[in-house]
Specification:
With 304 residues, the chain is α+β, with helices and mostly antiparallel strands. The chain is built from 4 helices and 16 strands. The protein has a 16-stranded mixed sheet that branches. Strand 4 and strand 5 (144-150) form a beta hairpin.
């Protein structure tokens, strides 16, 4: 009897051993399969990486690369964006840290436009109170003075002369009367009676003829630049190099150079000395391109 019990015990132990061994083999096989599967996945990742594209970074690279005027225009970056101004003395001079900058609505904004002056026109540059330049032109309509579009508006003036071309009357858009203005000093150009200085202190206005030949663009600075001698207003631009504009001006203090640094930055450098009796910094300014296109904005967006 004891022999039979021993045999049954031996058989039970054998069965348990075989079951455990079988379970262990299954676990080992599962582990091996997982290892093989992971190795296969790793091989796939290494051999065929999934490309990750940062669209914003790619766009930055594309837009920051242009360094010439033609490249800027090909991407419509020059004329379809606002450019803000900041102190440019730090450019090329990393040790210079005492800068003057503006924020919000205080920041002067620059706009570039292609001009639409008919080629046979007489183009005038007007200086108001030693503060602001404006561009105007006459076609065959001698009693009409057209404004190039700028930050404060556009339109035209009806002009008239009396007292042997020594009294000027101006009517804006045929409606708003800007009064009558006496000539200051002598008439210097009988063929162009508008040329000269008009009005009375402190609101003297001077008109000079400016040569618009080979100028395809003009720029507009929308407000006074605090502490700088560079004036607000509109300037004709002539391209003198693949990445350089210079303004065309009949006034010495209207001469500026604009150099394209990249798709986001340009350098504006005054090419004049401060006129006698006037103050203001005659040092570079940096232009920074805004990210939003003008064509995507409306007037309310710009003001806000």
């Amino acid at each position: 009897m004891k022999t039979l019990e021993k045999n049954w015990l031996f058989i039970l132990i054998a069965v348990l051993f075989i079951s455990c061994n079988k379970g262990t083999n299954i676990e080992v096989n599962l582990i091996n399969e997982q290892i093989v599967e992971k190795e296969n996945i790793n091989e796939e990742i290494i051999s065929e990486p999934t490309p990750v594209v940062n669209a914003e970074f790619e766009r930055y690279l594309a837009l920051s690369t242009p360094k010439t005027i033609s490249e800027l225009e090909a991407l419509e970056l020059l004329t379809d964006h606002y450019w803000s101004l900041s102190d440019g003395r730090i450019y090329g001079n990393p040790a210079f840290f005492s800068t003057i900058d503006w924020v919000g609505r205080m920041t002067p904004i620059v706009t570039f436009r292609k001009h639409n002056i008919p080629p046979t026109s007489i183009v005038y540059q007007r200086l108001l109170r030693n503060e602001q330049f404006l561009l105007m032109y006459q076609t065959e309509e001698e009693n009409k003075l057209n404004l190039l579009e700028y930050s404060l508006g556009s339109g035209f003036f009806n002009i008239g002369f009396d007292n042997e071309f020594n009294l000027l009357s101006l009517i804006k858009d045929g409606v708003v009367n800007y009064g009558r203005h006496n000539r200051v000093g002598d008439q210097t150009d009988l063929d162009y009676p508008l040329v000269g200085i008009w009005g009375a202190l402190p609101n003297l206005t001077e008109y000079r003829i400016v040569d618009s030949t080979d100028t395809l663009y003009y720029m507009d600075i929308d407000k006074e630049i605090p502490y700088w001698a560079v004036r607000e207003g509109s300037y004709l631009l002539k391209q003198i190099d693949e990445n350089v504009f210079e303004t065309v001006s009949s006034f010495p203090d209207g001469r500026l150079r604009i150099e394209v640094i990249n798709g986001y930055t340009m350098l504006l450098t005054p090419l004049f000395e401060t006129p006698e009796g006037e103050t203001g910094l005659v040092v570079p300014l940096l232009m920074h391109r805004g990210s939003t296109r003008i064509s995507e904005l409306d007037e309310e967006d710009y003001r806000n």
